Amino acid sequence: MIFTLSLSFLAGVVSRAEGTDTSSANAGSAGRRVSDYNGKRVGVLAGTMNDTFVIKALPDAKLSYYNNTSDMIAALEADKVDSIAGDEPVFSMAASENDRLEILDESLQDYDLGAIFPKTQKGEKLLSEFNEFIAKLKASGELDEIYMKWKTGPEEKKTLPDYSNFPAPNGMLTMATEGSYPPLDYFRGTEIVGFEVDLAARFCEAYGYGLMIDAMNFDGVLASAQTGKADFGLACITISEERKEGVNFSIPYYNSSAKLMILKDNAGAGSNVSPGSDNSFLRSIGESFEKTFVREERWKLFLEGVLTTLVITLLAMLFGTILGFLIFMLCRKGNPVANIITRIFLWLLQGMPAVVLLMVLYFIVFGSVSISGVAVSVIGFTLTFGAAVFGLIKMGVGTIDRGQYEAAYALGYSNTRTFFRIILPQALYHVLPAYKGEVVSLIKATAIVGYIAVQDLTKMGDIVRSRTYEAFFPLIAVTIIYFALEVLIGRIISRLSININPKRRKPSKILKGVNTNDQN
Amino acid sequence: MIRIEHLKKEYPNVTPLKDVTVEINDGDVISIIGPSGTGKSTLLRCINQLEKPTSGKIFVDGLEITDPKCDINKVRRKMGMVFQSFNLFGHKTIIENIMLAPMDLLGKSKQEAYDTGMKLLRTVGLAEKALNYPDELSGGQKQRIAIARTLAMDPDVILLDEPTSALDPTMVGEVQAVIRDLAKTGKTMMIVTHEMNFAKAISNRVFYMENGGIYEDGSPEQIFDNPKRENTRRFVRRLKVLELNIESRDYDFIGMQGQIEVWCAKNQISPNYSNRIQLVFEETTNLLIPLLKTPKVQAVCEYSSETELAVWTFSYAGEKVDITKTEDEISLSVIKGLAGSIDYEWAENEELQNCLKLNIRSDGIVS
After folding, report:
1. What is the extent of the structural domain holding B252?
2. pLDDT by residue (tens digit) across B273-327?
3. For the complex shown, is ipTM > 0.90?
4. Is B354 a member of any domain?
5. Taking CB atoms and an 8 Å limit, are A511 and B89 in contact across chains?
6. Residues 479-498 of A with CB under 8 A from B
């Protein structure tokens, strides 16, 4: 097996500390039953149906909610939960790649997976075409073949139709998916693949559509299909009566079940890792590094994520600064209308969690407009950053003594000129350190854009984790990259604040072009 | 020439300027004195419209600057102002503070502005500080720079709002010297100040302001040496005044004694001297009141913080009553012992015809 050394380095440390006997490393947990976990801590994915399945089967279980499968597995490995509940195909893939994990045979609940479509005319039409397509595949037995190819086949055989070059006489379709549910949908390198993607591509090929794929958090998939942001969603979605109120479901394309996954007994020690050896720790780091960055050229994912994060941050910084300044200029002379509007806007923006603001913008305000998640992120963060900049300038200008205005007025400066020549240069210098802090906050705040189908650095880290089943290395890598970005942007602003400090000017510059020798 | 007509400035709670009408001639150097809170600074700030008057008009060379259509920025370029708190621009060097406005507002070239600036810096004695920043200077130096900055605009009128009040006493001299030189240049100047000797030395005209108006307007000799009006006299002599009125035989004697004591304490009059002031009041009223048919007495005590001496003046209506003619020798001798002398005057035309003056001695025996 490829992943025989799949321990995260941290787990490796723990195992050595415990000094576990390696001889029993491969012992299973045979005989464990689902009912053994009643009253225990169980992890589930937020937004899925699994929590209801767990409560039904294990009424006394204590539930913890996670945002993606890799977080759940990390929690299980770190002993935050005793077991985790999830979809059988995703879990079997995980268990086959991480030999500390084991799935209980007994199912919590059997259910069907279906594609979701918006309740619109176009959605209804697509739905009937998709149902027809699935029915055909089922009848010919092809559906099972495709699934088995993705579940068990060697990676090089897991190929997709080249959907980017479909002629698309009937138009383009946007598919919303999650991207961290191997083998159903997952990232291989920078490309989204999987059973569900295969189905979608074959469907589009057969019915004359082009295909575009948007990966986002699970909550976002449902919202996208419901609001018509996406034409359909395929993301390991359980067919349920409640969900049918918001979207239309296709006929099932896979009969799945909810399973419990646990850690193997004595799973702390990996089979091939010798705990006594001096370089096991370094080797496991090297292994993690290889898996996180090198394999399948995953560094490209990180690079893409960094670029997206940078683009959002820098554009929001630029536009937000302009916006905040413009609002300040409008409110400066105490125009009551401008003031009231500004106050309401600030109150709304500052009272709303950024993630809610983004979702409102993406799914409601721009719900019917074709606009990329990156653009919506830039707009959202421009608004929040603009509000912060407005507050900063207001504060900075407020620190300037009334006498500075009076002295300028008394010399004959107009109100506007006084502001730009005398007040603003002094205020800016006061404000810059706080501005730097706001920018650093902005970089970190952009980590939530995964909710609206943007693959930023954080989301890319999640995607890599969902493939490598490494709990910590990608997280730490992402953290280090964030630090590097913060240092970089912080440096630029510090540089700026030196330039903007009037007292750091060189005397020769102050009197540039003046003949100072003339004694008259 | 500046003409001010019925100028009034009102705030929700106070009215610093009630009604000011005055003309200021070109070349006048006017000192404005008076107790605090009487509208001196407000008058100055209204003249260059840093405060918008509630009502009234101001004309500068015939142009009504209180007219909303008037371009006040243009007027201000010809009307410099020096502030109590200097208000130098913190982000600019000294020379830039002086060069900025001529370049921005008068279209002077950098070289021109620099040359004028350096010339002015030399006249205020701070040429070597040209490239320093304001926060590297002492208060006196800052104020001299502020004056140079004002002069760089070559104004016709210079308004100085308590230019030395925020300074350490050791620095007052250097700033006053610069202002004194300025006063000789023939520019119109108005200066709010508490330094009366300085005001007397530099100005050709003095406004004594009180209660939101110009109470007395005259030459420095008139105001400081021969004030025409009572309150001016009290102010320039630094007199503290207490006024008590007795309108019947059953006046509140104990209450008045208390008032005198509190007033003395407030003006830091020594307990010993305070005692004398009270005793004179007690003995005089004891002697005087029974002699009056219908008592109507105004007793005023004036205390000069300069000489540390107090004077009681009793003015009363009715027939001629001179207590020195009394038969109560003991009371009279007590009063004489404390007061040294008793002066009595009769003025037929006054409302209170009798006037009794007692200078209270600071030495001698208290019985």
Report:
1. 239-360
2. 999 999 999 999 988 988 888 889 999 999 998 888 899 999 998 888 888 887 7
3. no
4. yes
5. no
6. none
